[in-house]
Design a protein that fits this description.
- The protein is of the alpha/beta class.
- The protein has a single domain, classed as NagB/RpiA/CoA transferase-like (Rossmann fold), CATH 3.40.50.
- 39% of the residues lie in helices and 20% in strands.
- Strands 1-10-7-4-2-3 form a 6-stranded parallel beta sheet, with helices on both faces.
- The radius of gyration is 17 Å and the shape is globular.
């Protein structure tokens, strides 16, 4: 299995590079954090940072590092102590940062990123605004192609995230998407990154562990 994942991750990394993404492989979340801090961050011009919600990103400890380091200006977009209006304004400001961090719902072996969002701030940061975007993804997010990516999101990632977030949607009780009309629905905005533009703006770190949802 070690050789299997070594080969599969490298094939996916090469496909991402062919699609103009920066692409890396890390052994574990700590290795991903080291890649960001030692190889990627020194080339980024400014200290303003924000992020989109991600269980995988949390595992790397990067957000907590930036939160406690005085040399970085971290825009907090998840803060229970402030109002929803304040959070939304911060999320708009997060589109103007130097570095945006996030996870992804799926990575195809053909080198595409596929995501489904509730509000759109996470995928918005990937699409436009931040000068550099870093995506971290566990090996369990890798799927053969677009159809499998969308199926993975509908049947696994979306229901699991709705459960994690305590949403009041049918899938929380059934684990199955029913294409609901709930006001708590988290499946609102699809994005498909076929390529990174400009070249290298989006950097993907594939982690050789099962991480996230």
């Amino acid at each position: 299995m070690e050789k299997y994942w070594e080969l599969r991750l490298e094939r996916c990394r090469q496909a991402l590079e062919e699609n103009n993404f920066g692409a890396y492989v890390a052994a574990d979340p700590e290795g991903a954090r080291d890649l960001v801090m030692k190889e990627i961050l020194p080339d980024i011009g400014g200290p303003r940072i924000s992020w989109g919600g991600s269980v995988t990103l949390a595992a790397t400890g990067l957000v907590e590092h930036f939160r406690t380091s005085p040399e970085y200006d971290l825009i907090e977009t998840f803060d229970a102590s402030v109002t929803r209006d304040v959070i939304m304004e911060r999320r708009r400001n997060a589109l103007k940062v130097d570095l945006f961090l996030s996870g992804t719902n799926a990575v195809t072996e053909t080198g595409m990123l596929v995501n489904l969002d509730m509000v759109g701030n996470r995928v918005g940061g990937m699409v436009f605004g931040p000068a550099t975007v870093i995506i971290v993804a566990g090996r369990n997010k890798i799927v053969p192609g677009l159809d499998e990516a969308m199926k993975r999101i509908r049947t696994l990632a979306a229901p699991a995230n709705a459960i994690r977030l305590g949403k009041k949607t049918p899938c929380v009780h059934t684990s199955t998407c029913s294409d609901c009309r709930s006001s708590d629905r988290i499946c609102n905005v699809w994005t498909i990154h076929e390529k990174s533009y400009p070249k290298g703006r989006i950097k993907v770190i594939l982690i050789n562990q099962d991480l996230g949802l």
